[in-house]
Prior knowledge:
This is Serine carboxypeptidase-like 18. Residues 458-497 are annotated as: Disordered. This protein has 549 residues and is of the alpha/beta class. The protein has 17 helices and 16 strands. It has helices at residues 2-12, 81-87, 142-159, 176-192, 213-226, 232-241, 254-267, 292-298, 318-324, 327-332, 360-366, 386-394, 439-442, 444-452, 457-505, 507-514, 527-548; strands spanning 20-24, 38-45, 51-58, 69-73, 92-94, 105-107, 117-121, 131-132, 139-141, 168-173, 201-207, 351-353, 372-378, 399-409, 412-422, 425-432. The strands form three sheets. Strands 1, 2, 3, 4, 7, 8, 10, 11, 13, 14, 15 and 16 form a twelve-stranded mixed beta sheet that branches. It has a two-stranded antiparallel sheet with strand order 5-6. Strands 9-12 form a two-stranded parallel sheet.
Amino acid sequence: MLGLVDCFYNNYLLRGSQNYQSIIKTLPGFPGNLPFKLETGYIGVGQLDEVQLFYYFVESEGNPQEDPLLLWLTGGPGCSGFSALVYEIGPLSFNYAKSRVKPTLELNPYSWTKVASIIFLDAPVGTGFSYATTSQAYQSSDTNQGAANYEFLRKWLLDHPEFQSNRLYIAGDSYSGKIVPLVVKETVNGNDAGRNPKMNLVGYVLGNPVTDEAKDTNSRFKYASFTGLISEEVYETGKRNCKGNYTYAEPNNTACAVVLQVYEQCIEKINLMQILEPFCGYLSPKPSKLERAESALMEDPIDIHTSRSPWCRTYNYIPSYAWLNDKMVQKALHIREGTIENWVRCNTSLLYTKDLTSSFGLHRNLTEKGLKVLIYSGDQDISVPFLSTMAWIEALNLTIEYDWNPWFLDGQVAGYWMEYYRNMYMLTYATIKGGGHTAPEYKPKECFAMIDRRSHSKKEEERKKKRERKKERKKEEEEEEEEGGGAAVMVRSREVQRRKKKRKGNFLDGLGRTGLIRFDSTQIFDFRLVFDFFNRFSIRFLTVFALKY
């Protein structure tokens, strides 16, 4: 690999590196022209642009001028943006039945690009088609990814000024739960410092996010109890003896060691990404229990045939290796020849340092920035259980706007959600019923509905205006209390009670205003009509009764 770097250094770097983009109109394996705008390119970051980050950009299929812009960072670290493009939220997917002989692509009806423009980034360096022109530049870490990805985004927007005014979200899933908040922080700081261009940052989106790996891992024990993977006796014994540490037993703590041994035996053959799906065997030597979740996500069975029984989800990743290592495909995508040896979906040999223990502090600081945040969890994921995500969200000490309630799709419960706020900051948390670790991969229709209902600019403005009105009312009440003394306090108390009653009475309206739920005949029965009918019936009955008697 380093030999390739040295050769390419002479042929490319000395000519001067410039940002490079190409519009892709056709792709091998897809019939006809692409019905959406696809751009690929490289953008250099670092003092000498020594890191060349590759990206796929798909313009919104709806209204590119008005729809939001997402920068998507896939987890890993080291998993390609192509994985999200084809297996999660992008406009293409593999037709697995037709891909046994040769990879064949088809359209994804639930692509998020129907409501947003998305940049799928191969980051950090060494991921996908991203490369470096020096061996030293291949070294990266959690903390330097915030600055590198912000620099990429800044240069991309300078090259694409038509998107500078679009609402911007930084998004990702899995390990990007640590990286996305860093990029958001850099973006906020860049705007505050007056850097060009000023970005219209609205918020960020995270799916099953790694936040604090120790706490995420420990929460699996509780999740295993909740889902019946371990007995109540094992759970209670573990609580008594393991002191909150369920990854390893302390020396001489025999009682805890026995519990953890039973626990490991119970989940050893469970698919950690989605506990209801078949367990995928390991091609490499069996990993330790601390490595299992990462291995399950990043290891692909590239040396076995897709017809092997029983089916395993990782078999779906096989076509991506054959397709993206095809020279014709690389030529169509305008990949720079000689920059990488082989494309892999997730690069497990990065020169990468995990130097951020927890991203919780970043989330806490960002609550003061007036952002709109969506956190979602596939509820069948044990690698980063929803219990762990809910725990750190609760620790932010936000005010609950709407408590735990179901949200619906096609008249069925699609998951559950809550909404929190602090001043102009708003966080929505949603679960995806039946979803796994990369939720859109398992529940594409539900995840598209979730993001679609949050992508409309009018709803965002209504929510912003509502929060501003609420803030103004609170300020007026405080002023009245100062001026009017005790009388004002009584008036304020009555007003608060009136509003609480109004809020309860308009609960279903409140669901609609969140953007996660919209009322129509295909999604939820409108109980307000029933309430209105009974109210009118009661009034008429009492009137007739009074006149008669």
